[in-house]
Amino acid sequence: MIVLQLDISEDRTLERLKTCSWWPNLKKDVAEYCQTCDRCQKANRDGGNKFVMTIQIQEPKSLWETACMDWVTALPPGGERSYNACLVSVDRCSKTPMFLPFHKDDTAMDTAIMMWNKVISHTGIFQNIISDRDPKFTSALWTNLHNQFGKKLSI
Length: 155
Prior knowledge:
7 helices; Nucleotidyltransferase, domain 5; 4-stranded mixed beta sheet; 15% strand; 2 domains
């Protein structure tokens, strides 16, 4: 049975088992096992669209020109204000991270104010933000902020 735990592909599992053992309905048993195996299901799940249009991201020429941002949520409350989320911003040029404490129900305005006070005031406004299209970054607020500085927001 160790063979079944090593592989995540039904075909590869079957081939491996055939080299060291045989029993009636081997193929059927392997298929049933792989249909219920948690690891096999995660590896073979249908992710929907197989082909996604990608955009080539230019290498940044200067520090904090491009930032990658994402939220870490559902954290245990911490600090004086019981923050339960964290915004992680990483400069693509230097790979320098910044971690900002938030509450998971903070608005786009709260995010922009904190970013302005803690990050943008030191780094300058980003040319590009790479994120998972969170509404806190795609809102009209961020677009208008970039327009005010003559930058194009590309998320």
